[in-house]
Amino acid sequence: MKIGELSRETGVAVRLLRYYEAQGLLTSHRSEGGHRHYDPDAPATVARIRTLLAAGLPTKVIRELMPCFAGDGAGLQACVLDHLRAQYAELDSRIADLTRARTALGDILDVSTRVLATPEP
Fold it and tell me: Which PANTHER family did the record assign (predicted)?
């Protein structure tokens, strides 16, 4: 399958597929003319990449996880679950930090709105 075909089948831009390849997430074979050709399982690989990206995982982590898929779906082997749990905990921490920042910003906006609404003597 050529890169254009993979792009059409997966809905992922050619440029992004090249990026995945540069990051070591996707592999291709070159023809004599230098054209990329992908194995028949490439659409499933792209789907896995997209799933992990949507989960907020960086490409470095995804590259480490790619060999650990169990079966044809998005499930991963037990040996990487602790790593995923750590990523999950990191997201929880970031969400808590963002929630605190949002609350603080809301407080500043409330005070500022009240100050601006109060006529000066």
Answer: MERR-FAMILY TRANSCRIPTIONAL REGULATOR, REDOX-CYCLING DRUG-SENSING TRANSCRIPTIONAL ACTIVATOR SOXR
